[in-house]
């Protein structure tokens, strides 16, 4: 199983992402944004967090149109798996691979704290190591994580079960207090129509070692590796 | 040829930055302001003198990058030479 982690100018979470993928048993290669092709045999493409292009124009706007994104779109169109975390989620929205957009946090503050997420479904390649409805303990660090979409898109996401994670409290309750960035319907992550592309604002790669204070993030990477190992 | 592209948030899209600016103006004692919406302005130099070509290039620029049409509208104004 092989992952390609795309690095843009201003990405800064690729190191943690590499570590999390390797820990789960994936081979990993870094790919520079100006490349036009993914490494042969890439099973999973990962867009890590950071501040690509300094968040100029809109977060993820310039990276979303980088050359390598044509290859990522083609990979997704073939049914290949794509994961975007934080800035990676913003890039997926700007590239058209996921609907909606991440707006400035409703309270205008950069938020950085531990955060529980409710796993909305566990029958996808990203979440099968979790239980449905499980509250996982990860963390968030972003200024623009306020998920926004038009009413029709939101209805479609909800109706087709495309919400991946919602902000919740430790008991798995989706409360207004747990939704610190003001996201519509407390959405923390979403899937594409075919469930092969997933973007999320929180960082599962931050919580993969006891020494980091928790290991709830591991499940996501284990899910991906086991899904792809079976497919191969 | 020069052009000015203005990108604004669509009606109904929440604008926390505009709200914060509105609040700041109130706290500065600036009266008579009912609302603020923040947008972006791009001043663009064009290499062509053909207005139709310029319009096509600017539309492509807006659609492909300058505006995210999920939440934003754009307006293109080509400056008449003087």
TrEMBL record, chain A:
PROSITE patterns: GATASE_TYPE_1. Pathway: Purine metabolism; IMP biosynthesis via de novo pathway; 5-amino-1-(5-phospho-D-ribosyl)imidazole from N(2)-formyl-N(1)-(5-phospho-D-ribosyl)glycinamide: step 1/2. Gene3D superfamilies: 3.40.50.880. It catalyses: L-glutamine + H2O = L-glutamate + NH4(+); N(2)-formyl-N(1)-(5-phospho-beta-D-ribosyl)glycinamide + L-glutamine + ATP + H2O = 2-formamido-N(1)-(5-O-phospho-beta-D-ribosyl)acetamidine + L-glutamate + ADP + phosphate + H(+). It comes from Microvirga terricola. It holds the Pfam family GATase_5. Part of the FGAM synthase complex composed of 1 PurL, 1 PurQ and 2 PurS subunits. The active site is at residues 86, 203, 205. SUPFAM superfamilies: Class I glutamine amidotransferase-like (SSF52317). It comes from the Bacteria. The gene is purQ. Keywords: ATP-binding, Cytoplasm, Glutamine amidotransferase, Hydrolase, Ligase, Nucleotide-binding, Purine biosynthesis. Signal peptide: none annotated. This is Phosphoribosylformylglycinamidine synthase subunit PurQ. Its EC number is 6.3.5.3, 3.5.1.2. It is found in: Cytoplasm.
UniProtKB/TrEMBL annotation, chain B:
Keywords: ATP-binding, Cytoplasm, Ligase, Nucleotide-binding, Purine biosynthesis. Transmembrane segments: none annotated. It is found in: Cytoplasm. Pathway: Purine metabolism; IMP biosynthesis via de novo pathway; 5-amino-1-(5-phospho-D-ribosyl)imidazole from N(2)-formyl-N(1)-(5-phospho-D-ribosyl)glycinamide: step 1/2. One of its GO terms (molecular function) is phosphoribosylformylglycinamidine synthase activity. It is an enzyme of class 6 (ligase). It comes from the Bacteria. Its EC number is 6.3.5.3. It catalyses: N(2)-formyl-N(1)-(5-phospho-beta-D-ribosyl)glycinamide + L-glutamine + ATP + H2O = 2-formamido-N(1)-(5-O-phospho-beta-D-ribosyl)acetamidine + L-glutamate + ADP + phosphate + H(+). Pfam families: PurS (PF02700). InterPro entries: PurS, PurS-like_sf. The keyword S-adenosyl-L-methionine does not apply. Part of the phosphoribosylformylglycinamidine synthase complex involved in the purines biosynthetic pathway. Catalyzes the ATP-dependent conversion of formylglycinamide ribonucleotide (FGAR) and glutamine to yield formylglycinamidine ribonucleotide (FGAM) and glutamate. The FGAM synthase complex is composed of three subunits. PurQ produces an ammonia molecule by converting glutamine to glutamate. PurL transfers the ammonia molecule to FGAR to form FGAM in an ATP-dependent manner. Part of the FGAM synthase complex composed of 1 PurL, 1 PurQ and 2 PurS subunits. Belongs to the PurS family. PANTHER family: PHOSPHORIBOSYLFORMYLGLYCINAMIDINE SYNTHASE SUBUNIT PURS. HAMAP family: PurS. This is Phosphoribosylformylglycinamidine synthase subunit PurS. It comes from Microvirga terricola. The gene is purS.
């Amino acid at each position: 199983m092989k992952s390609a982690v795309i690095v843009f100018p201003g990405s800064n979470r690729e190191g943690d992402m590499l570590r999390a993928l390797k820990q789960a048993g994936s081979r990993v290669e870094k790919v520079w944004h100006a490349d036009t092709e993914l490494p042969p045999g890439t099973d999973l493409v990962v867009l890590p967090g950071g501040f690509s292009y300094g968040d100029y124009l809109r977060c993820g706007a310039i990276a979303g149109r980088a050359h390598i994104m044509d290859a990522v779109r083609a990979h997704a169109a073939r049914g290949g798996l794509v994961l975007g975390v934080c800035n990676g989620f913003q890039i997926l929205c700007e590239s058209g691979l996921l609907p909606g957009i991440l707006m400035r946090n409703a309270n205008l503050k950069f938020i950085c704290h531990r955060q529980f997420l409710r796993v909305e479904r566990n029958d996808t390649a990203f979440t099968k190591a979790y239980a449905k409805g499980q509250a996982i303990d990860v963390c968030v660090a972003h200024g623009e994580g306020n998920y926004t979409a038009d009413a029709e898109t939101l209805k479609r996401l909800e109706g087709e079960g495309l919400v991946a994670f919602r902000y919740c409290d430790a008991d798995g309750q989706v409360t207004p207090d747990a939704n610190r960035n003001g996201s519509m319907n407390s959405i923390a992550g979403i899937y594409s129509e075919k469930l092969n592309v997933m973007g999320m604002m929180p960082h599962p790669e931050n919580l993969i070692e006891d020494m980091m204070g928790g290991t709830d993030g591991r499940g996501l990477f284990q899910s991906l590796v086991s899904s792809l190992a079976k497919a191969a | 040829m020069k052009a000015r592209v203005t990108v604004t948030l669509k009606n109904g899209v929440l604008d926390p930055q505009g709200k914060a600016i509105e609040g700041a103006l109130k706290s500065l004692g600036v009266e008579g302001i009912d609302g603020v919406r923040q947008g972006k302005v791009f001043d663009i130099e064009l290499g062509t003198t053909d207005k139709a070509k310029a319009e096509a290039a600017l539309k492509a620029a807006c659609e492909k990058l300058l505006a995210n049409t999920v939440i934003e509208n754009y307006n293109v104004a080509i400056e008449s030479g003087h």
